[in-house]
Amino acid sequence: MPLQGGVHVLQFRAGCEVDETTGQFFGFVSYGHNGEDFLVFDLNTLTWVPLSPQASIAKQVWDRDTALIGCLKDLVNNFCPQWLKMCLDYGRSSLMRTDPPSVSLLQKTPSSAISCHATGFYPDRALMFWSKDGEEIHEGVEHGEILPNQEGTFQMSVDLTVSSVEDWRRYHCVFQFEGAEDRIITVLDKRRIRTNWKPKPNHVTIPVVSAVVVVVLVIVMATAIGYHVHQKRREAEASMELSETSSSSNMN
Questions:
Q1: Residue 99 in this model has a pLDDT that exceeds 50
Q2: What is the DSSP letter of 77?
Q3: Residue 68: which residues within 8 A CB-CB, separation 6 or more?
Q4: Is domain 10-95 in CATH 3.30.500.10, yes or no?
Q5: What does the alpha-carbon distance between residue 190 and residue 206 come to, in Å, rounded to a whole number?
Q6: Which is nearest to 154 in space by CA: 177, 183, 128, 123?
Q7: Contact 141, 129 (CB under 8 A)
Q8: Which of 3, 76, 88, 141 has its CA 20 to 30 A from that of 61?
Q9: What is the pTM of this model?
Q10: Which run of H or of E encompasses 27?
Q11: Boundaries of CATH 2.60.40.10 in the chain?
Q12: Where are the transmembrane segments (predicted)?
């Protein structure tokens, strides 16, 4: 193949894939030149197929290279399928793993959007949406991104504007893994909404409570003073009676 001056890049690609339904393996070998398709190896005829006019010369040379053809045939038909099968067996537990999410309804304030939050699911190939009467809705809905959790699972949320809600019982939050038929459906129920919001105290009650506390303190203080005065009076009367008794005894 005649080459002009400058830098030339020759790219090689080889591998195999498996049909999970039939279990049959398919291999491929190809070359690229300067970012464009150049040659592809036909595993049935064991010959090179040129993909550009410049590749015709290389085809004639490589078709006669029996050592290269034998090496590529063994690589694609034997070595690659064995390694692919081994990798699939080792990774099957991860590839087939499916962890369902925990779904919650969250709301910051009574007027803010209702967030349907799913967490702890795996894999991340999932979708979630709001539906009304069984049909997906888009108006008043805002989708969040799928985010990773520390333990390797994922979380996501989708918000529904409260002002767009008419009859709460007609709305549902739907979670579904891609390619799966099963769905996790959560009915929009006010009793299931979790929130940290608490109503602010009524400012009118603050002076009333303060006034009640002051009145109680006044009553307590008045009672204490009255009790103290009463005790002093009784002590004085008892002292006078004792003095009179002593005087009478001395006169006798």
A1: yes
A2: I
A3: 62
A4: yes
A5: 31
A6: 123
A7: yes
A8: 76
A9: 0.49
A10: strand 25-33
A11: 102-194
A12: 204-227
Inform me whether the pLDDT recorded for 229 exceeds 70: no
How far, CA to CA in Å, does 239 sit from each of 244, 246, 248, 249? Answer: 9, 11, 15, 16
pLDDT at 129: 97
pLDDT tens digits, one per residue of 30-88: 999 888 899 999 989 999 999 988 889 889 999 999 999 999 999 988 999 999 888 88
Q: Which residues pair with 155 in a beta bridge?
A: 119, 147
Cα dihedral across residues 48, 50, 51, 57: positive or negative: positive
* Residues 105/193, Cβ–Cβ less than 8 Å: yes
pLDDT digits (tens, 9 = 90+) for 174-204: 999 998 889 999 999 988 999 887 766 665 5
Q: How many residues in total does the chain contain?
A: 252
Distance, in Å, from the CA atom of 123 to the CA atom of 101, rounded to the nearest integer, reads 10
Cβ neighbours of residue 202 closer than 8 Å, sequence gap 6 or more: none
The fold of 102-194 is Immunoglobulin-like (2.60.40)
* Residue 105: exposure state from Cβ atoms within 10 A (0-12, 13-18, ≥19): buried
Strand partners, 182: none
What pLDDT is recorded for position 221?
62
Q: Are 93 and 177 in contact (CB under 8 A)?
A: no
Query: 167: helix, coil or strand?
Result: coil
DSSP code string of 173-201: EEEEETT----EEEE--GGGEE----PPP
The count of other CB atoms within 10 Å of the CB of residue 212 is 10
Closest by CA to 183, choosing from 196, 194, 174, is 174
